[in-house]
């Protein structure tokens, strides 16, 4: 296979008891079944509260199984818990119990897919800076995945972006981006290979930016947008998906507004995660 198509979906936030955003997923699911890409990659926050609610994880898995398409998942913070900067205390911190629960439903939280000329490496961004044994194991996994695929362009698939604009920036990192210490190690690993694409979600904004020779793609959320008064506007705030067309070692990228989806404002849904703080 030299030419193939992957659709990236992200941040679906599905739940049977808090079904606020399920209809958006249903519209995306209908569109995917019509379009029939070669694979669907989900870049995390699959469930609304999978970190603590088994039923949210199970419901989200069943919804995706209904697509009838080849689908690969990486977890988000709402699936396995949050990471943090050293010394920072976070709500629903990632731990071994939450990781085990996620894996029992969705399988491995890191993986390799070789499709056409490309190697895709899925990573669990909640492990970055966590200090868990699994963090070191994942870094070793990534190093081996990059070393074992010489000559292949590589795409990383993860929930949180590695950084906003530059690896050494002083931007807030613990929640929105990879913590600084882990980021430096990851950037060094990327520099040792032909990483041409990083596919991420989490920010609930769509943005495509070239960093050196790597396209850093933020997928829009399927579920909702975050109001400007809670998180600054860094890209386009609109629900949607990302459509990738690969041909040999080249790729074209476009974001898609799926018909029938609604740009829900999270500020209007306090029953989802509680009142949002005003930060801007």
From TrEMBL:
Gene3D superfamilies associated with the record: 3.60.21.10
Residue ranges of coiled coil: none
Gene Ontology molecular function terms on file: hydrolase activity
Signal peptide span: none
Residue span(s) of domain Calcineurin-like phosphoesterase: 4-205
SUPFAM superfamilies linked: Metallo-dependent phosphatases
Pfam families in the cross-refs: Metallophos
Highest taxon of the lineage: Bacteria
Protein name: Calcineurin-like phosphoesterase domain-containing protein
Organism: Prosthecodimorpha hirschii
């Amino acid at each position: 296979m030299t030419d193939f198509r992957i659709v990236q979906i992200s941040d679906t936030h599905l739940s049977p008891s808090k079904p606020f955003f399920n209809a958006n997923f249903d519209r995306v699911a209908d569109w995917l079944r019509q379009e029939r890409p070669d694979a669907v990659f989900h870049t995390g926050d699959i469930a609304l509260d999978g970190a603590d609610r088994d039923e949210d994880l199970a419901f989200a898995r069943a919804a995706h199984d209904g697509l009838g398409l080849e689908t690969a998942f990486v977890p988000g913070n709402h699936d396995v818990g949050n990471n943090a900067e050293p010394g920072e205390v976070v709500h629903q911190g990632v731990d071994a119990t939450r990781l085990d629960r996620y894996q029992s439903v969705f399988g491995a939280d890191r993986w390799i897919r070789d499709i056409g000329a490309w190697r895709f490496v899925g990573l669990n961004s909640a492990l970055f800076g966590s200090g868990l044994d699994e963090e070191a194991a994942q870094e070793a996994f990534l190093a081996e995945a990059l070393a074992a695929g010489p000559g292949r362009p590589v795409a990383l698939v993860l929930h949180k972006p590695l950084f906003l604009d530059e690896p050494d920036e002083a931007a807030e990192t613990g929640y929105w981006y990879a913590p600084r210490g882990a980021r430096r190690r990851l950037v060094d690993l990327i520099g040792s290979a032909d990483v041409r694409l990083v596919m991420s979600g989490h920010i609930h904004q769509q943005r495509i930016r070239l960093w050196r020779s790597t396209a850093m793609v933020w997928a829009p959320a399927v579920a909702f947008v975050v109001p400007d008064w809670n998180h600054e506007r860094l890209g386009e705030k609109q629900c949607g998906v990302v459509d990738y067309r690969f041909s040999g070692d080249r790729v074209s990228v476009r974001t898609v507004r799926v018909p029938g989806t609604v740009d829900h404002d999270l500020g209007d849904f306090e029953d989802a995660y509680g009142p949002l703080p005003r930060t801007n």
